[in-house]
Design goal:
about 300 residues; alpha/beta; Rossmann fold; 5-stranded parallel β-sheet; 9 helices; about 30% helix
Length: about 300
């Protein structure tokens, strides 16, 4: 028997943001005994800047995909606009189209009672939105491992060492220390020094969307570092994320990709370091209220 209510979540952004969209909506569906339906289309059809695509098929997600009518087709853009306009004047608990209001953690979502079909549209970048159903989220987001020999051999190397996933994400083209969106080399130097305090004989596995620039930024060339640079392009993002989750400790970038690598892979004894910076708007936002789990180290 199908649940009486339905939540249609609009998935959008890169892989890390897509996971946040899903996790918040999944929790909302569980506590409301509502069916979760995934809109895997409309969040991407007008993304002409980054040309993102839906990337969650590599996880063990139990929800079904939305039909055309559930995606508000035909005339989706106009029908969505009308629903948004009508919902803006309603109290939070009475909206039929729920858009995220700002970046900070919004506890109202935890108390929401779903009374009928609900469209949910936002990034919801905090584990606070799903902390009380953490084990279910972890089960849903078990990554289907890549089967090729290169990734399997790298995974064996990771698991046989005291592995630290180190992620360098490039938002700006420049490698300058004054770049606004990129985390500085100084952050990574401090993070590596912090790891050295706690982890015996760490071996670093460097993940980056520009491995060559990351090598120049970090200037680490000894045997402590392995460069994971064979999974190129968004289509191989799940493979890199899976490898990241095989590590024991984590140095994240200001990136939801490495946020999820650390969250999915980290255990109670893991050292997880995140940049203690604040960025609002533009091509990335970081450091807002609720984004970084309390036990992570911020430097």
């Amino acid at each position: 028997m199908m649940p009486p209510h339905k939540i249609i979540v609009r998935i959008k952004g890169g892989l890390g943001n897509q996971l946040f969209c899903y996790a918040a909506a999944r929790r909302l569906s569980l506590v409301n005994d509502a069916e979760l339906v995934i809109d895997d289309v409309t969040g991407f059809i007008r993304d002409r800047l980054y040309c993102r695509r839906y990337m969650l098929d590599c996880f063990n997600i139990p929800a079904r995909k939305a039909t055309k009518s559930e995606r508000l087709e035909p005339f989706e853009r106009y029908r969505r606009g009308v629903m948004k306009w009508l919902s803006r004047s309603k109290p939070f608990a009475e909206k039929r189209y729920l858009e995220q209001d700002g970046l900070d953690f919004d506890g109202r979502l935890l108390e929401l009672k779903v009374k009928g079909p609900l469209y949910i549209d936002g990034l919801w970048q905090s584990d606070g939105y799903f902390k009380d159903v953490e084990q279910t989220i972890r089960e849903d987001l078990r990554i289907i491992p890549p089967t090729d020999g290169l990734n399997q051999r790298m995974a064996e190397k990771i698991r046989s060492s005291n592995a630290v996933a180190l992620h360098v994400r490039w938002f700006d083209a420049t490698e300058s220390e004054t770049s606004f969106h990129n985390v500085s080399g100084a952050y990574y130097q401090r993070a590596i020094a912090e790891i050295q305090r706690y982890v015996k004989k760490p071996h670093y596995f460097l993940f980056s969307d520009d491995p060559a620039a990351a090598k120049r930024l970090l200037d680490i060339t000894d045997e402590r570092v392995a460069y994971v640079d064979h999974n190129r392009g968004d289509e191989n993002g799940c493979s890199d994320l899976w490898l990241m989750t095989q590590c024991r400790h984590f140095i994240t970038a200001n990136s939801t990709f490495s946020w999820w690598g650390a969250w999915l892979g980290g255990g109670n004894n893991s050292i997880i370091i995140a940049p203690n910076i604040k960025l609002r708007g533009g091509i990335t936002s970081w450091g807002f209220n609720g984004q970084i789990p309390e036990r992570w180290i911020r430097i």
